[in-house]
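Dear support,

I submitted the protein below through the web form. The confirmation email said the job was done, but the results page showed an empty box. After a refresh the structure appeared. I'm attaching both so you can tell me whether what I see now is the final result or a partial one.
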Amino acid sequence: MLERILASTYAEIALVVRDASPASPREPAWRRLYNYRHHLLYLAYRKLDRRMFRRQPDAFAPRDLGPLLASVPMLDVVPRRTRFSDRFSPEDLATLKEYDLDVLVRLGFRILRGGVLQAARCGIWSFHHGDPYLFRGGPAGAWEVFLGSPTTGSVLQILNEELDGGLVLYRSQSCTDSVSLGRSLNGHYWKTLSFLPRKLAELGRLGSDAFMAKARHSHPTVNLYSERMYTAPRNAEMARILVRLGTHMTRRRVRNLVSVNQWRLVVKKSESLNGSIDGFREIEPPHGLFWADPNIHEHQGRCYVFCEEYSHRTGKGSVVLFAIGEDGKWPDKPLPILETPYHLSYPFVFTHGGQIHMMVECSTERRVESYRCVEFPHRWEGPTVLLDNISAVDATLHEQDGRWWMFANMVENEGAMPWDELFLFHTADPFGGKWTPHPLNPIVSDVRRARPAGRLFWQDGKLVRPAQNCAGGYGRGIVFNHVLKLNETEYEECPIAQIQPNWHPGIRATHTFARGGGWTVCDADRWRSRLSRK
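What the results page shows now:
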């Protein structure tokens, strides 16, 4: 995070404020054991969790900041300490204010109180790795795992005298790992390191007055918290938590031994989005394959459904096609359309300049590719690289008012999850023009409605963007968002409807939506017995 700021044009690190309080003498082991006697099970769980679920890259690996900040002035302070808080002396505050700083960032110290909160023009910014609207206290991100919350929140806020009650500058949601706290936090922290550079860039772009006015406008007018103040679980409570986590892990391992998840298509002869979601029938793939990511294209009066076919034998996906008969019958098996040495998924078929093109996801190759149709639907040539050196998934195009928009989920930092953040690019020509990043990127930072789930469409005069709800697991549901603003400087949307996986018994997830040619097609994930060879 600091390397990114140092290399930027929007900010400089002008001062390091270091806590120079004398180190406390190291206590003997028996004393430390006695002090933590009520939380020994929690400490043992953290150590065991770290050994069982190793993660790379590790967000918590120690880094030496000395060489990075060697040329930055340093101010040593010895704060006045109460039980939980730190206060700066009048002399240290006077010295600090001489630097005329725009922002102070709390990466050390304890709870800061007093005049230091006003020592910088835009206050002290602080991370909270947890959602203070839902879980206040600590340990960071732990109770989301322990209580089975599907999401783990995070904020960047400006501190004030009220604990966790400051002005929120950035708020995001990640998927909670249901078993491992360390694994859950790892992806969470890798994502949140981008918050500070993004907001500093915005501050540089808008200026302090406009920046603060926008932050206050975006902040909720009522922020009441009525839950408990969380602390590290005591031994009896941690014992109950361990029983729940162990039971969940055992069930999952047993389930994986006897069954495998398999995506299939669910289809309905209707394009209506009103009324009940029932009436779908399943198109089930053979054992060892799954079909997902449907995309509908109409050609010469017929309806074609492109989708990913994933083979467990080869470990990669290819693009196949279902040509729906004029009588509405589906073929017994799809036609192979496109296969490469690397994994393909999420085919997106579109027309440009009178020609048919198909964009595919190949994030393992760090690019977004498109193929041109030479003879529909069998022959395709390419690829043409639309975006290169970029880890983008489920890229989705939308043309409006002579401009092309590309929505895609991206991972800025290795180690972060690819479900959380939606980025937007635009161009006048998808093949000959330059794709310009939207200034508000990421336009969505919320695992519950970020990742694309199919083509944008118009419904009753409203532009609707389907998105995946990955809270509680990858592709668990679909959320439909009404796009309120879409231009080169603004983007705004709000959720208006959703499809949960419990609409039919046995379905555990559904994550792509397509409609056209009189059909509605989704994908759905079921558990299938490993003994089945049908």
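Response: this is the final, complete result; the empty box was a page-load delay. The CA atoms of residues 84 and 406 lie 48 Å apart.
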